[in-house]
Amino acid sequence: MNKRIERLNRKTLRGVWCALILPWNDRDELDARRFVKEVRAYGGTGVNGVYTGGTTGEFYAQDDATFARVTEIACVEAHAVGLPVQIGVSALSTRTVRQRIRVALKHKADALQVALPFWLELKDDEVKRFLKEIAAEAGKTPLIVYLTGRSKRKATPEFIGELVHEIPTFIGTKDTGIDVAGLKAILKEAPDLAVFGGEDFYEKIPAGGRGGYCSITGFNAAKVVELYTLCAAGRLTEAKPLADALHRYLYEALIPLVKEQGLWDSAVDRIQRVAGGGVVGVRCQSPYRSGTEKHVKGVIAWCRKNTPELLPAHLAGR
C-alpha cells in the first residue's frame, strides 16, 4: 500500500468517488487482467476512493463467483495504489446481502454500499429490519445507503434521521437525484450524515453536501477532482465555468444517449470511460444494449467541439 488509508466515518467520508466498470469478455465473463488495470488507473488521479456495484458496475449481472473475484481485485488493487474502496453488496434478499458482506470483509473493504431490495417495495419496518441485520453482519465496517428510485421507494428525511440515530455505522448516502432542498432537509434531521450527490458540487457543497459518486470521472477524473476541490474551498467564482462545462457535457453529450438512443446508464458510462482512455470496453451484460465505438467517437467529437477544456490529457493534444 502506497499510503495510509484513512478510516471512513461520518466525518471523513467526503470527496470524489469513482464507479468501477467491469470489463467483460465475449463470453460475458470478467476479464480479470483488464479489471486490475482499470482499478489501478485511478491511483494518483486525486479521487478519494473507488466503488463497485450500482448500475455502472452491473451488480445485477454478477453471480457469486464473479462477485467474489470482483471484490478481491477491487480491494487488493485499490489498496495497492492507496485508495479506499466501497464494495457494493446490493441484492434482492437480506440473506444474499449478508453473504456478499462476508466476502467484502474477507478482502478488507473499507465500506459497504447497498441499495434497498427492490422487487417488492419495502415498508418502513422492513427497511429498518434490513439495515439493522446487515449492519450487524458488517460489524464495524460502515454502510453507505444508495437511495435510488430503482428501489421503488425513497426514504423521507425524518425516516433517514431515525435510521442514522439507530444505526451508528450508517455513515452516508448516495443519491444522484437529490436536489438542494432535499439535501438540506436530510441534514436538518441528521447533521453529521455524509450526503452525496453526483458531479453537481457547485450546488451541493455550499448546501452541506459532502461529495459525489461520479460517472464523469471515467472520462476525466482530474477535471472532476478540480471542480470538487474548488467548491470545497469555497472558490465558487473560479468553479463556475468548469461546473457549467461539466453540466453541459452531461446534459448535451451523455443524456441524449439515454433519451434519444435508448441506452441505459451502464452503457453510457462505458462509452465515456472508453473515450477517457479506460480499458473496460463497451460491452454490457446481456440482455441490456451496449454502446458502440461510434458512440465513443461521437462523445469525443462533441467534447472537442463544445467543451475542449474537458478533454482528458491523452486527447487534448490531438
Question: Which features would summarize this protein structure in a list?
Answer:
TIM Barrel; alpha/beta; eight-stranded parallel beta barrel; 12 helices; 318 residues
Structure in words:
The chain is of the alpha/beta class. The chain has twelve helices and eight strands. The protein has helices at residues 32-40, 64-80, 94-106, 124-138, 157-166, 180-189, 201-204, 217-232, 236-259, 265-275, 293-306, 313-316, and strands at 15-19, 49-51, 85-88, 111-115, 143-146, 170-174, 194-197, 211-214. An eight-stranded parallel beta barrel has the order 1-2-3-4-5-6-7-8, surrounded by four helices. The longest helix is centred in the last third of the chain and has 24 residues, at 236-259. It is globular. The model has no long low-confidence stretch (mean pLDDT 95).
The CATH architecture category equals Alpha-Beta Barrel
Give the overall average pLDDT: 95
Estimated structural class? alpha/beta
- What's the name of the CATH homologous superfamily? Aldolase class I
Strand content: 5-15%
Strand tally is 8
Order of helices and strands: EHEHEHEHEHEHEHEHHHHH
Strands side by side in the biggest sheet:
1-2-3-4-5-6-7-8
